[in-house]
Amino acid sequence: MEETSSKRKHVSLINELIQGKELAKQLSDHLVTSYDPSISHETNELLIEKILSTYEKALTMLNCGSNVGDTKTISGNMMMDSHCSSTNESPRSEVMDLEFKHKALFKKRKTMPRWTEQVKICSETGIEGSLDDGYSWRKYGQKGILGAKFPRGYYRCTHRNAQGCLATKQVQRSDEDPTIIEVTYRGRHTCMQAKHLNKESPSKTKMGLEENQHHNDQKNQLVQQEKMEQTPEAIFKFKAELEVKTEDLETKEDIFPWFCFPSPSIGSENDFMESFSPAFISPATSESNLFCLSAYPLGSTGLCQNPQTSESDITDTVSAPTSVTNSPLLDLDILLNKGDFDTDFPFNTPEYFSS
DNA sequence: AGTATTTGACCACC
DNA sequence: GGTGGTCAAATACT
């Protein structure tokens, strides 16, 4: 009984991976044969969505598989792995419930998509605010890390309570080079801003003034904080040319040609998939490994500045790639209507957030 | 008053 | 037991 079930899972896992491979090939063909974005853009986007969905499903299956035999865990993870535990819904006390949920939360976070961006501030005046990725974050902690000169900041999505968005990020300044800031993202945004950004950004449409203002406010906030943390000699005017390097993907231009940031390719961290690390399906990893932007058009154009870059485009420029794959997955979830994805709508139970 | 940040304490994992 | 991640009360800010 259980064996046939696991066989079936195995087969569908293979099917998903095969499908993903074929879709990737299709996309590859599209990219080779058609450089006209107006023709191929939508198709490509659709293909990418499908590919991401496929791999996500495969990963989900793998996650489920790893829990096989651990019925307690499965039961405990019910709210996050509903698809894995449809048969395990025994009644339990509230205390047990909370306990399970707490553990589930931990496991959940462990398996969450995770990827790192390194933001290099080319000038010595680097400002973390420029890390603004278009999402609003709320700081919930800061901690000194062993062996690290600078404390690590912990942020979570502002809409965590309101919309159950579990995305978090960690911000840490590099030891060797304080102008490099490592941002580790965890989990994808499931909040409305993800959708909104996704609609806005892929084609680099303009961001609403209000929202833009909001982002700038955030930026300023971070700027101030950053100033506090920085050495005095680093406190000058905000002029930042940023290089944002993601670690997990080799060439995102290949995959998202419409994000052609003129940048040297780094590709040193070559763990493209890190054995199918969830990171590879994450928004940021879908970008190029490294892209530059000039946050403010001070004087002449920045080295890597987008021709149309204006102040109002900054966050757009940063956030666009980040959000590209966020929502498609979300939408796909709805589209597929399977509730299959471990990482997308895990915790909609109010009590989960009542921390 | 409502919201965001700070910071010490707590907890799970290794 | 040490460490990283999170919580939550206190505080600051708008």
TrEMBL record:
<dbReference type="GO" id="GO:0009751">
    <property type="term" value="P:response to salicylic acid"/>
</dbReference>
<protein>
    <submittedName>
        <fullName>WRKY30</fullName>
    </submittedName>
</protein>
<feature type="domain" description="WRKY">
    <location>
        <begin position="126"/>
        <end position="189"/>
    </location>
</feature>
<dbReference type="Pfam" id="PF03106">
    <property type="entry name" value="WRKY"/>
</dbReference>
<dbReference type="InterPro" id="IPR036576">
    <property type="entry name" value="WRKY_dom_sf"/>
</dbReference>
<dbReference type="InterPro" id="IPR044810">
    <property type="entry name" value="WRKY_plant"/>
</dbReference>
<dbReference type="GO" id="GO:0042542">
    <property type="term" value="P:response to hydrogen peroxide"/>
</dbReference>
<keyword id="KW-0238">DNA-binding</keyword>
<dbReference type="GO" id="GO:0010193">
    <property type="term" value="P:response to ozone"/>
</dbReference>
<dbReference type="GO" id="GO:0003700">
    <property type="term" value="F:DNA-binding transcription factor activity"/>
</dbReference>
<dbReference type="InterPro" id="IPR003657">
    <property type="entry name" value="WRKY_dom"/>
</dbReference>
<dbReference type="GO" id="GO:0000976">
    <property type="term" value="F:transcription cis-regulatory region binding"/>
</dbReference>
<dbReference type="GO" id="GO:0010150">
    <property type="term" value="P:leaf senescence"/>
</dbReference>
<keyword id="KW-0539">Nucleus</keyword>
<comment type="similarity">
    <text>Belongs to the WRKY group III family.</text>
</comment>
<keyword id="KW-0804">Transcription</keyword>
<dbReference type="GO" id="GO:0005634">
    <property type="term" value="C:nucleus"/>
</dbReference>
<keyword id="KW-0805">Transcription regulation</keyword>
